[in-house]
Every structure is written in C-alpha cells, then in structure tokens.
C-alpha cells in the first residue's frame, strides 16, 4: 500500500476521520485509527507532546482527507471558537498546502481545490485583524522550505489585510506565491537558511537564479496567474537596486511585491537569527530597515508584536 503524509495538526478532535490513520514505527506503517473513528483532545495532545508532526493515510483515501480538510475549514468562520484556535487551524492549513504544493500543481483541479482552501484562510484573516500573532505562534520557527513558505504567506496576508492595499484575489495570489517563491533553492543546492552574503562568489550566480527557476517550474500552467509569477520573479529585489536578478528599486515595485519582499526578508532574518519573529523584529529593522518602506515596516511591526 502507498501512503501519503499529512500534518497531525490538521486533525480536529472528536470529528469522524473519514480515512484510516497510520503511524510510522521503525520503518513500518502501523494502523492507528480506522475511518469511522476519531481522536479526542488528550490523544491529539499526546501527539503534540511527542512532537509527532505527521501521520499517514493510504494514498487511495486522499480525496476523503481533502473533504475532511474542507469541512474542518468551515470552522474558520465560526466566531464561537477562539481566534487562537482558528489561527492555529489557518496556519496548519497553509503548512499542509505548502507540503503538498508540488502534487497540487499537477492538475488544475487539485490546484483549484488548494486555492479555495487558501482563500478561506484569506477570508479568516480579513475578518480577524489580530489573527497573525496566533498563526506565528503555531508556525514556530521556519525550519524547512515549506514552513518558510507558509510563514511568508501568513505574514503577507496580515500586512496586506491590515494595510488595506490588497484585495481578496491579490491576497490569495500572494499567499500562493509565498508557497512557491523559494521552491528552486533545493534544486540549486541551497535551502532557506542560505544567505547571499555568506555564499561564495561562484555559487552566488546559481543562487541568483532561484526566482527565475521557480517561475520556470510553473510558467506553463494556465491556472497560475501572471501576478503570482511577477511576485516570485521580483521577490529578491530591495533597496535602491540592491537585490537581484534585475536590481529593481524597491519603491518602484508594485505594492503587493513590496509587502511580499519585506515579509520574506523578515522571515529569512528570523531563521538566520534562530529567534521568534517578535524577538528579532528590532534587529531586523536595524539591519535591513533601509531596504524597505517605513510605513510597511510599521504595519508589519504592529502585526508581529500584537
Ligand atoms: Fe528567495
Ligand atoms: Fe524566501
């Protein structure tokens, strides 16, 4: 049997699973729950305590998992649930979408269903201006590419919403760009911890190709909008032509790109510093503030420190 991994955090307590759950134990998949069963809060807490972040489901039951996810997402708009619970669900949804992005891109149908889940996160953030703090707590420190992608998406959604500079479609596209923008790093031999300032000169040429290669990987796909491609292309441009690949001036970029580039640089800074967002914000501004727009930095600050 083939298995696919899903984030443990996307499993809701006391809700019928609709799919069989397996855990990986000493290289074997062991059946843990069947589709008609559910998890209660203490058992999910035990997973959390043991840092079991992923569980496995049979590949042929993936569609059931996606419908389960869609159902769970309805909770995002339920005002009787606490903002922090819903923020956690929103962040886990973005993480799950980041994990499965390469599969999602294989068909328009899969892409549209992922896009509609992202849109529900967007709607949640539009309706809950203080959601970001809970999302960042749930995100933790970005440790891998997909965690970085989802954290950038939530930062951009928060600043894009709070600034009122971006509408729902623009927010959704920016969140998709968040999941994709650094997707070529691995292929080129880098990761989210790579920093241009301490890469050897020869390797810098390769590093600078990562936005263009990320675009190439999705450019033929009709369902990816030109806006997503532009945001990815320009995501390393900052200051007065200090970035790459085109050395564009930050202030001449479109506002969605300005917001994106600021949030992306901030999460890379936080990864480098090994500190939570709110604990390294001032250091970030001291080191990189001049490369971005002060008003946007202030909005980001209010969101991160809320
Ligand atoms: Fe990048
Ligand atoms: Fe990035």
What keywords describe this structure?
two-stranded antiparallel sheet, binds fe (ii) ion, mainly alpha, 4 strands, 306 residues, 56% helix
Description:
The structure is a single chain. This protein has a two-stranded antiparallel sheet. Strands 2-3 form a two-stranded antiparallel sheet. The longest helix is centred in the middle third of the chain and has 20 residues, at 108-127. It is globular and about 60 Å long. It has 306 residues and is mainly α. The protein is built from 14 helices and four strands. It folds into two domains: 1-65, no CATH class; 78-304, Orthogonal Bundle (Hypothetical protein af1432). Bound molecules: fe (ii) ion (FE2) (2 copies). One fe (ii) ion binds next to loops.
Averaged pLDDT:
93
Q: Which ligands occur here?
A: fe (ii) ion
CATH level-3 fold name of the largest domain: Hypothetical protein af1432
In total, the number of strands is: 4
What is the molecular shape? globular
Distance between the termini: 46 Å
Helix-strand pattern: EEEHEHHHHHHHHHHHHH
Rounded to an integer in angstroms, the radius of gyration calculated over CA atoms is: 19 Å
CATH superfamily of the largest domain: Hypothetical protein af1432
The biggest beta sheet is recorded as: 2 strands, antiparallel
Low-confidence stretches: none
Oligomeric form: single chain
What class would the helix/strand composition place it in? Answer: mainly alpha
Report the top-level CATH class of the largest domain.
Answer: Mainly Alpha
CATH architecture of the largest domain: Orthogonal Bundle
Report helical residue fraction: 55-70%
Supply the number of structural domains: 2
How many individual helices? 14
Could you tell me the strand content as a percent range?
Answer: 5-15%
């Amino acid at each position: 049997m083939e298995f696919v991994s899903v984030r443990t955090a996307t499993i809701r307590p006391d809700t019928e699973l609709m799919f069989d759950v397996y855990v990986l134990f000493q290289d074997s998949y062991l059946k843990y729950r069947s589709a008609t069963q559910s998890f209660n809060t203490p058992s999910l807490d035990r997973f959390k305590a043991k840092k079991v972040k992923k569980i496995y489901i049979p590949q042929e039951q993936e569609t059931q998992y996606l419908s389960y996810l869609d159902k769970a997402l309805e909770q995002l708009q339920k005002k009787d649930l606490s903002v922090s619970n819903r923020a956690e669900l929103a962040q886990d949804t973005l993480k799950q979408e980041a994990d499965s992005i390469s599969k999602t891109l294989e068909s328009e149908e899969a892409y549209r269903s992922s896009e509609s889940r992202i849109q529900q996160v967007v709607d949640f953030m539009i309706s809950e201006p203080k959601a970001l703090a809970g999302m960042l707590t749930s995100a933790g420190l970005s440790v891998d590419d997909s965690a970085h992608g989802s954290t950038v998406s939530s930062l951009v959604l928060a600043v894009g919403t709070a600034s009122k500079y971006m509408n729902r479609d623009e927010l959704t596209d920016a969140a998709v760009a968040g999941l994709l923008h650094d997707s070529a790093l691995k292929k080129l031999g880098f990761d989210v911890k790579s920093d241009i300032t301490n890469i050897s000169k020869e390797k810098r040429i390769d590093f600078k190709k990562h936005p263009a290669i990320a675009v190439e990987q999705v450019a033929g796909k009709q369902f990816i909008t030109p806006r997503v491609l532009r945001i990815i292309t320009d995501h390393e441009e900052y200051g007065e032509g200090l970035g790459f690949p085109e050395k564009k001036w930050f202030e001449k970029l479109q506002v969605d790109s300005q917001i994106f580039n600021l949030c992306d640089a901030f999460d890379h800074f936080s990864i480098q510093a090994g500190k939570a967002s709110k604990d390294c914000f001032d250091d970030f501004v001291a080191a990189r503030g001049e490369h971005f727009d002060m008003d946007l930095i202030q909005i980001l600050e209010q969101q991160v420190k809320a």
